[in-house]
């Protein structure tokens, strides 16, 4: 599978001047670091990369040292043996240790939110608080919970599947149409072009399939009542990928969960309204003593 190349797909990448490549936890990471202050680790979702935080990072960096990696097999990071939530969380902890940065706050989007809470549960680079954006935090109900990972596993082991998916995304307008259908979030032309660069490569699609094939949230679901950190769950009311009811359910199971449903936003709500999300994150951090009072 052909992975995205920094000298090709990475040309004029958002905030490229903050990029570095770090070997840790069995992964060669592409990671971006900017800003000063308490450390905020940003974990993107399946099929995305650091570009998903392109407008969030500089705003958050006014108050935080922001660390944003590409997940294993995504973007410009290498793959990992078995991309389960626990294995990815363990590798991320190794990355943070290698950087010498301990997160005060971890922000995860979609699957990244599940990884963030897994890190909290397993005490891997455990932050003082967590923010979950459009979190994929509960197993799919019924047969779907078994069927979806199995389908992803079958596609992942078929060497032709990622290339066939990549070929389909190369049709004009296909990525923009897919994002609109799957997320209900209108993304600007720059964002669509960045998603196209990645989704046109079979390696990036293979990384997404690897994560989906090993996606088991039953342990996390059982652990929710014991995760005693403050957790803010922000969810777009129009999310077409993960219903807002998921975050509502999770907030009720967490000892210290707080829910914020944002009207008129979809699954990529932080890309639609970055300033709104940064303000909510900063307010949450101040309320829990991570930032000084404004």
Break the fold down into its secondary structure elements and pairings.
Blueprint: E1 19-24, E2 27-35, E3 39-43, H1 56-60, E4 65-69, H2 85-99, E5 105-109, H3 111-121, E6 129-133, H4 144-157, H5 160-169, H6 174-183, H7 189-199, H8 202-213, H9 218-223, E7 231-236, H10 244-253, E8 257-262, H11 269-272, H12 274-287
Helix pairs in contact: 2-3, 4-8, 5-8
Helix residue percentage? 40-55%
Major sheet attributes: 8 strands, mixed
Q: What structural category characterises the helix and strand content?
A: alpha/beta
Distance between the termini: 49 Å
Number of strands: 8
The CATH top-level class label: Alpha Beta
Enumerate the strands of the largest sheet in spatial order, edge to edge or round the barrel.
Answer: 1-2-4-3-5-6-7-8
Describe this structure in words.
This protein is α/β, with parallel strands linked by helices and 294 residues long. The chain has a single domain, classed as Alpha/Beta hydrolase fold, catalytic domain (Rossmann fold, 3-Layer(aba) Sandwich). Helices cover 41% and strands 16% of the residues. The protein has helices spanning 56-60, 85-99, 111-121, 144-157, 160-169, 174-183, 189-199, 202-213, 218-223, 244-253, 269-272, 274-287; strands spanning 19-24, 27-35, 39-43, 65-69, 105-109, 129-133, 231-236, 257-262. The protein has an 8-stranded mixed β-sheet, with helices on both faces. α3 links the parallel β5 and β6. α2 (85-99) crosses α3 (111-121), α4 runs antiparallel to α8 (202-213) and α5 crosses α8. It is globular. The protein starts with 18 loop residues before the first strand and ends in a 7-residue tail after the last helix.
């Amino acid at each position: 599978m052909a992975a995205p190349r920094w000298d090709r797909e990475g040309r004029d990448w958002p905030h490229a001047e903050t990029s570095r490549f770090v070997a840790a936890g069995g992964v060669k990471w592409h990671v971006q670091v900017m800003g000063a202050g308490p450390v905020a680790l940003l974990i993107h979702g399946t099929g995305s990369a650091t570009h998903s935080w392109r407008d969030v990072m500089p705003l958050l960096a006014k108050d935080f040292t922001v660390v944003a990696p590409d997940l294993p097999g995504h973007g410009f990071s290498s793959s990992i043996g078995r991309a389960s939530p626990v294995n990815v969380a363990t590798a991320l902890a190794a990355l943070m240790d290698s950087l010498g940065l301990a997160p005060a706050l971890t922000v995860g989007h979609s699957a990244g939110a599940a990884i963030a809470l897994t890190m909290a549960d397993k005490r891997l680079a455990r932050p003082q608080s967590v923010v979950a954006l459009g979190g994929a935090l509960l197993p799919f109900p019924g047969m779907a919970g078994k069927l979806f990972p199995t389908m992803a596993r079958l596609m992942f082991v078929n060497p032709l599947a990622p290339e066939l998916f990549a070929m389909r995304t190369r049709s004009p307008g296909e990525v923009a149409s897919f994002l609109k259908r799957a997320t209900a979030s209108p993304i600007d032309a720059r964002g669509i072009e960045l998603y196209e660069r990645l989704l046109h490569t079979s390696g990036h699609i293979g990384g997404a399939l690897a994560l989906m094939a090993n996606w088991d949230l039953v342990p996390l679901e059982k652990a929710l009542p014991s995760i005693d950190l403050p957790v803010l769950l922000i969810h777009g009311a129009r999310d077409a990928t993960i219903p807002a009811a998921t975050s509502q359910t999770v907030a009720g199971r967490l000892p210290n969960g707080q829910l914020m449903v944002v009207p008129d936003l979809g699954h990529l709500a932080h890309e639609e309204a970055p300033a709104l999300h940064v303000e909510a994150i900063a307010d949450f951090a101040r309320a829990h003593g991570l930032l000084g009072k404004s």
